[in-house]
Structures are given as structure tokens and as C-alpha cells.
Design brief:
The mean pLDDT is 75. The radius of gyration is 64 Å and the shape is elongated. The chain has twelve helices and no strands. The chain has 363 residues and is mostly helical.
């Protein structure tokens, strides 16, 4: 437009105006030469991008893709149930994907209990019978148990018979008598009688001696009466106990013999019963552990939510980032291709008013 001037004849137009017209025609020529490549590029990207978007992205969002995969015969010679070892099963991609979104375990999602029976694989009761049979055949042999041999029994009986105390009758009779041969009180009384008959010089000594004898008797009674009584009681206790010593020894030997017989007869059974009780406790521990392992394996191990999240991430990356950009690219190129037609027409029409003419078009 800067090269155009009013009133100038078409044969006298400036070089700037003529160059603008040539550029218009060059643009028309380049459009005719290369527009088919642009159209082909738009067509290829459109066919790929739009079909992939509609087949994958849209069908993924409305779950039609999983319904298509679940349709029998869509994929030749492919059966998900048979692949998972489920005869007559109804496994499908839609249900697996839904359970994985809920963070279920692969054991529940793939219904592996139909192909692998944990109850049969981890059933400890099938071994309990063999263990019981082997345990019943076990023979427990113990070395002979001897609490007392015959020599020891004879020694105890001989000791009980010869261990009798001496005859304490004479001793007891002597203990019942006075501690002295004569009575100190009687002697004191005699001294007092003599003091009454004696003279003044001897009387006082006799009375003092009589007083001392009474005090000595009182002191001896206080000092020896209790020990003597205790000695008598001990002697009676020894006599009564010695009389029963042989009977006690015989009773103890009888109990020892019965105990030995009981041990020889019942000890193998006791050991066997206690061993079986311990074995049952171990089996209970194994059953508790197996129950825990089954619950962990079927509920907690190999949760498949990361798989569903990975598929969702693939959909987000592939559809929201790649395919949307591809579709925006072919859509923009399509509009550019569409505007080539009016641009060619406008370029051809405008070139007439910019180029320098060889012959003036008076009309």
C-alpha cells in the first residue's frame, strides 16, 4: 500500500508496488505447489489423532473400552478367565479395574481362590493324623527308678528297732524326789530348835544358818524346778516317739515302695501326655500363624491400586497432554488450509492493482 499513488497509470507504477504484486503472485504459486502437502499432513494427523482420541480416550472415560475388551470374541482366542485358571469364571477387565481403584488385593481382584485353594494348600489337619499315628507308635523307655534299695530299707528298719531309748523310769523317780538327799527346810527347822536350847553366843549363828538354808532352798526351787519339768516332758516325748518310730519307718517304706511302683508304671504315660499337650499347643501356634498368613495374603499383599493409578496416569498423559495437543495442531493446520482458498483469490485480485502493467487497461 505504501507504493500505491493515486492518479498514476498502471504502466507507470513504482517498483515497490510492482514488488508487492509479484509477492502476491509468488504466494499464490507457492500455495498451489505446497498446499497438497499441507492438506495431506492435516488429513494424516486428523485420521490418527481424532480416531485415537475417540477410540481410546473417550471410550476409556465412559468405560466403553473395558466393555469392548470384555465382549467375547473381540480378541481372537483370548479368554481372561481361562488365562487366570478359572474354569467357568466370569473375570472381566471392568470389574478388575473397579476393584483396583478401591485398592483391593490381587488375590481378590483376580479371584485366585478359584485356581489356588489356600484351605487345601495350608491345611495343617492333613498332617495331624500322621503326627498322631507316629506319636502313638512312639515307645517311651525309661531307666529303672529306685528310690530305696533293699539294703537301705533293712538299715532303716534296723535303725528304728535299735534306736529305742533307755528305760527312764528310775530317772523319773529320782527327778520326782528332792534335789538334795535331805530336806533343807527340815534341817533349818532343826537348827532353829537347837538355837532355842543353845546359849546366846551360838543361837545367833544357828539362826543365821537356818535363814541361809531356807533362802538356799527357795533359790534352788526357783532355779531348777522349770528345767526339771522341761526335762521330764522331753523324756516322756522321747519315750512316746520312740514307741512309734518303728511304725513310722514302716509306713514311710510302704509309701516309698508305692511311689516307686507308681513312677515305674505311670511315668511313661505322664511323659507321653505332657508331650502330646505340648505338641497340640505347637499345632495351635501353627494354625494361628497360617490363619494370619492367609488373611495377609488375601487382603493386604499386592494391592493393585498403583496399577489403576498408573493406567489413569497413562490416560492423562496420553489424552490430556499428547492427543489434545495433536488435535489442536491439526485443527489449526486445517483452518490454515481452509483460509488458503480465499487468500489465493484475494492475492490474484489484488496483484492486478499492484503490478506494473505493460498495456494500460483503459476500460
Amino acid at each position: 500500500p505504501l507504493g500505491l499513488k493515486e492518479g498514476v497509470l498502471p504502466t507507470q507504477r513504482s517498483s515497490l508496488s510492482n514488488a508487492g504484486g509479484n509477492f502476491f503472485m509468488a504466494g499464490v504459486g507457492f500455495s498451489f505447489i505446497f498446499s497438497w502437502l499441507l492438506m495431506l499432513l492435516v488429513l494424516i494427523i486428523f485420521v490418527l489423532g481424532w480416531n485415537i482420541y475417540m477410540f481410546f480416550c473417550e471410550s476409556w472415560r465412559n468405560q466403553q473400552l473395558f466393555q469392548l475388551l470384555d465382549t467375547p470374541g473381540v480378541i481372537p482366542n483370548f479368554n481372561l478367565s481361562e488365562l487366570l485358571g478359572q474354569e467357568g469364571g466370569t473375570a472381566n477387565f471392568s470389574e478388575i479395574y473397579r476393584q483396583c481403584q478401591q485398592d483391593a488385593s490381587l488375590w481378590q481382584t483376580l479371584h485366585l481362590d478359584q485356581s489356588v485353594s489356600l484351605d487345601e494348600l495350608l491345611n495343617i489337619s492333613q498332617y495331624t493324623g500322621d503326627i498322631s499315628t507316629a506319636f502313638e507308635k512312639m515307645n517311651i523307655t525309661l531307666s529303672p527308678i529306685s528310690l530305696l534299695n533293699q539294703n537301705q530299707k533293712d538299715l532303716l528298719l534296723r535303725a528304728s528297732r535299735t534306736g529305742q531309748p533307755p528305760n527312764f523310769t528310775l530317772t523319773l523317780e529320782q527327778l520326782d524326789q528332792n534335789m538334795t538327799q535331805g530336806s533343807l527346810l527340815d534341817l533349818a527347822a532343826e537348827l532353829e530348835q537347837l538355837a532355842g536350847k543353845a546359849g546366846t553366843d551360838v543361837k545367833k549363828d544357828l539362826e543365821d544358818n537356818a535363814r541361809k538354808l531356807r533362802g538356799l532352798d527357795k533359790e534352788m526351787q526357783a532355779s531348777f524346778s522349770r528345767p526339771l519339768q522341761s526335762l521330764k516332758e522331753n523324756i516322756h516325748s522321747v519315750q512316746s516317739g520312740a514307741a512309734q518310730l518303728e511304725a513310722w519307718t514302716t509306713a514311710v517304706l510302704d509309701k516309698a515302695s508305692k511311689t516307686q511302683e507308681f513312677l515305674e508304671k505311670e511315668t511313661p504315660n505322664i511323659i507321653k501326655n505332657e508331650t502330646w499337650a505340648f505338641l497340640e499347643q505347637l499345632l495351635d501356634f501353627f494354625e494361628a500363624y497360617i490363619s494370619w498368613a492367609k488373611s495377609r495374603l488375601t487382603q493386604d499383599v499386592a494391592r493393585c491400586k498403583p496399577i489403576a493409578q498408573s493406567l489413569d496416569n497413562v490416560e492423562v498423559i496420553g489424552c490430556d497432554y499428547i492427543m489434545d495437543s495433536v488435535n489442536a495442531f491439526w485443527f489449526s493446520l486445517g483452518w490454515c488450509t481452509l483460509f488458503l482458498v480465499p487468500s489465493i483469490i484475494l492475492s490474484v485480485r489484488l496483484a492486478k492493482f499492484y503490478r506494473r502493467m505493460d498495456i494500460a487497461d483503459v476500460y
